[in-house]
Amino acid sequence: MANKKWKEWQKNKLWKQEVQKWISRFKQVDDNQVEWQKVYRAYLQSDVWKEKRDQVLSRANGKCERCKAIIFDPDVHHLKYDRIGGNERLDDLMVLCFPCHRDADDERDTETDAKRADSHYQARLNGFASSKYGDAWWYDREKREVEIEFIMYLYKKYCQEYEFDFDPPLDPETDLDFIEFWNKVLNGYE
Ligand SMILES: [Zn+2]
User: What's the pLDDT band for 1 if we cut at 50, 70, 90?
Assistant: First the structure.
C-alpha cells in the first residue's frame, strides 16, 4: 500500500515537472510567432497533451461541441492559450468538427491580435506618462486625463506629418482624419 502510494506520488511529481517544462517552453517563445508554432506542434505530440485531449474527447462523446454533428475525426480546439502547456482547464478546450474548428480559430486569432495591440498601446501610454510625470505617475494622475494628453500629443504629431489642421475639439466619432489617425495608432503609430 505504502509502495503504491509512493509510486503514485512519484508519477504525479513527474507529471507536474513535464507540465512546468512545457509552460516554460511556451513562455520563452511568447513574442515569436514562428518559434511558438514549433513548440505548439511538438506539444500536440506530447503525453501531457494526449491526456488532456482524451479527457475532452470523452466529454464530447463523438459529437462536435458547437454544431452537434457526429464526427469521426475530431479536432480539439483551444479557446484560449492562457494556460497552454498542461494547465488548460477543460472549459478552455472544445471538440469541434472541421468547419467549426476553422471558424473558431478565426475568432480566437482576431481576439488575440486585439489583445496584443492593446498591450502594446498600454506600454506606449505608460512610456509617455512616465517620461512626463515620472515612474509613479499613476499615483497622483488620473489615467483618463493622461491618456487624453497622450492621444493629443500623437494627434498633433500626426497632423504635422500629414499637413492636416490640428483641431482638438473635433468629434472623434465622425471626423474622418481622426478615425484614420486612430486606426494608425492602434496599428502602432508613434
Ligand atoms: Zn461543428
Answer: low
**Mean per-residue pLDDT, 21-33:** 90
The string of pLDDT tens digits covering residues 76-92 is 999 888 899 999 999 99
Give residue limits of the domains in the chain: 2-96, 113-186
pTM: 0.59
**Residue 162 C-alpha to ligand 1 middle, in angstroms?**
48
* Cell output for 19: 507540465
Q: How far is the CA of 85 from the centre of ligand 1 (A)?
A: 25
3-state SS class at 110: helix
**What mean pLDDT do residues 12-26 have?**
94
| DSSP-assigned beta bridge partners for residue 93 | 78
Residue 99 Cα, ligand 1 centroid: separation in angstroms?
6
Cα torsion 92, 93, 94, 99: sign: positive
CA of 17 to the centre of ligand 1 (A): 35
Q: What are the cell numbers at 78? A: 483551444
| Separation of CA 53 and ligand 1 centre (Å) | 17
